[in-house]
Amino acid sequence: MTGTARYAVGHTLAPRTIGPVTRTDIVRYAGASGDFNPIHHDEPFALSAGFPSVFAMGMYSAGLLGTYLTDEFPPSALKLFRVRFKEQVWPGDVLECSGTITVADGADVTVDLTCTRQTGGTAVQGTAVVSVAP
Amino acid sequence: MYDFTPEAGKIAEFARATGSANPAYTGDDAVVPPTFLTTAFLIAQPPGEFGIDDLGFDLKRLLHGEEEYVFHGPPPAAGTRLSVTSRPGPVSEKEGRRGGRMRFAAIVHEYRDETGRLRVEHRTTLIETEEKP
């Protein structure tokens, strides 16, 4: 079986479940990324801003989607990675990363990626172009 | 322009925080995960560089719209000194689905290695909503 046959249009990547997301997960991402916007870790601040609790950075879900992709394809094969932010992710959410090949164009494939919440809502939508050249 | 050198320990910490045990992200020759370079401006951007505050947006009505990374060749490895430039990208407006005008603006970051080669182009798109979100 060749690499391109394995990644034919319609091929789906094995999904990955993450969570329930904890405040510790959010704080761990804050420390790793340098994003110390208090809305993501300071509960009294988040409440005073009208939110029911702290919520995760969009880049947390985007990061989950990014490393989910590179567990399937080598990091060196990545040519393009784009994410669009849709819904906020809250403590207690259970997320699922999934991906489908939508274009198989010679040496490159396009992968549509989604990070969904347990509600069915989409947290982050992504697109990647990955080289599958031997 | 400013310098940002991804550190091996910081890459491993980031990979763990984003749910990955991929060996490509640990050890001295670790490479950056797909979204890692967004940390450059948070960790290393000095005052005076083009950033979110320069868009003229009301930060209380600011949403994060999109992030895009274009990799030219393999992702930068730990220890690669990257010089980063940040400049304004395109600006646009449209009507939101629930009514109200939305303004879009982008910041474009370019990361070049020690040889001057462009390694990564990175675009952050931000949205200012008409109503407080």
Short description:
The complex is a heterodimer of chains A (134) and B (133). Chain A has 134 residues and is α+β, with helices and mostly antiparallel strands.
How does this structure look, described?
The complex is a heterodimer of chains A (134) and B (133). Chain A contains four helices and five strands, in the order αβαααββββ. With 134 residues, chain A is an alpha+beta fold. A five-stranded antiparallel beta sheet of chain A has the order 1-3-4-5-2, covered by helices on one side. In chain A, strand 4 and strand 5 (122-131) form a beta hairpin. The longest helix of chain A is centred in the middle third of the chain and has 15 residues, at 58-72. Chain A is elongated. The relative contact order of chain A is 0.23. Chain B is built from two helices and five strands, in the order βααββββ. Chain B has a five-stranded antiparallel beta sheet. In chain B, strand 4 and strand 5 (118-128) form a beta hairpin. Chain B is globular. The termini of chain B are far apart. The model of chain B has no long low-confidence stretch (mean pLDDT 92). Classes of the chains: A alpha+beta (134), B mainly beta (133). Strand 2 of chain A pairs antiparallel with strand 2 of chain B, so a sheet runs across the interface.
